[in-house]
Write a structure and sequence with these properties.
By secondary structure, the protein is mostly helical. The chain contains eight helices and no strands. The longest helix is centred in the first third of the chain and has 26 residues. The chain is elongated and about 55 Å long.
Length: 198
Amino acid sequence: MSTRTAAPTRREQILKEAARLFAERGFHGVGVDEIGAAVGISGPGLYRHFAGKDAMLAELLVGISERLLSGGRLRVEESAADPEVLLAALIDGHIDFALDDRPLITLHDRELDRLRESDRKLVRQLQRQYVELWVEAVRAMYPALAEADARAAVHAVFGLLNSTPHLGRPDARPGRDATADLLHRLARGAFAAAADGA
C-alpha cells in the first residue's frame, strides 16, 4: 500500500497540531490562538480553515475513522482472498495508526463525547464497519472461531494496539520497528490463542 509523500496542506498542519495540543492538555485546555501559533498563523486566521475547535475535533475523529475503514477495505482488495496475507496487513495497518497517530487515540478516549450527536454516531458507525471487516478476516483465518468470540478478540487486539499512548517516554521504549514487530506478534498471538480455545 503506497504512502503519501506530498507536503501536508495548511489544513492538515492545523489538524496535526490541534490533535497534539488537545491530547496533551485536553480540548478545553487549548485555545485557537495556541493552535494558530503552533502552525505560524493567528488564531483568527484559523477560521479561514475551520469554523472553530469543535469542527477541528469532529474532522479529526471522523477523519481517522474514515481513514482506518478505507485502509482496511483496500487491504481486503489487495490480499487476493489470502487470509494470512489479509490478517497480517490489517494488523500492520492498525499498528501504523497506533504508532504514528497516538494523539488521535488519546483524543478518541477523552473527547469523543464532546462531538455533536450526528458526528459521534458517524464515528461509531464507521468503527462498527471497521470491526466487522476484521471479524470476517479473523474468521477466514480461524474458521472454527465463533463470530462472537472473533468480535471479542478483535476488540481485545484493538485495546492492545491502541495502548501505545501509554508505552512511556519515547526514549524509554524500543525503536519504532521493534515496537511494531512486538505489537504484531502480540496481536497474532492473541488471535491464535482465541482460536485454540474454540
